[in-house]
Amino acid sequence: MSKQDALATGELAATAAGKTGDCEDYRYQGAPAPDPKQLAEDAEIEQKYQAAQKAADDADAAVGPAPGTNAGAAAYAAHAAKLAAAAEAGAKAVELSAESTKRIAARAEAREANGGVLFAGDKIRMIVPPPGATTAKNIGKGATVEQLKAAYPNAVDKDGKGFEVPVPDQQGVVLSFHFTDGKLTTFLLFNGETKCS
User: Fold this and answer.
1) Are the C-beta atoms of residues 31 and 116 closer than 8 Å to each other?
2) Would you call 153 helix, strand, or coil by DSSP?
3) Which of 69, 74, 165, 190 has its CA 20 to 30 A from that of 114?
4) Dihedral sign for Cα atoms in the order 8, 12, 16, 21
5) Is the pTM of this model over 0.70?
6) For the chain, what percentages of helix, strand and coil (3-state, to nearest 5) are there?
């Protein structure tokens, strides 16, 4: 299903709840609406991060090779200045990346709590169902590992805390189930073939 088709169902809010690169986060109708001020701040941070990353990449490219053994002090000083500028630009990009990551994590928490869909471009990357939803085989929050395995005998243990069930005829798409203390805390549909850039 494309983003346009998903939005046309009317089940999702008409506007995104956040954007990172080409990935956009949408909530279901009736879920708490994102704060417009927060959305504007998020967009500003993302723009600053993209600009800082480009500046850091450009500064790294400008460093060039180290001066040769017969180079003079001026060449070494110029090279050191380029290294310092690249380090400063890189530090700024890292600082903004950390801020961006915090905001992405906050949106992920909201998506997990209220459900939502993450699009990568025009393709669905992830669907988190709204609270109270269950799978077609009646597995929902609070289910045990044993109940999951009975409903989905082909579930693959990923790390002792989660299981994945391949979705038939959907290359790279899985139902992903996450457990805490033996109880299902969240499940989602994940498309590993789509990426956020």
Assistant:
1) yes
2) coil
3) 165
4) negative
5) yes
6) 40, 25, 35
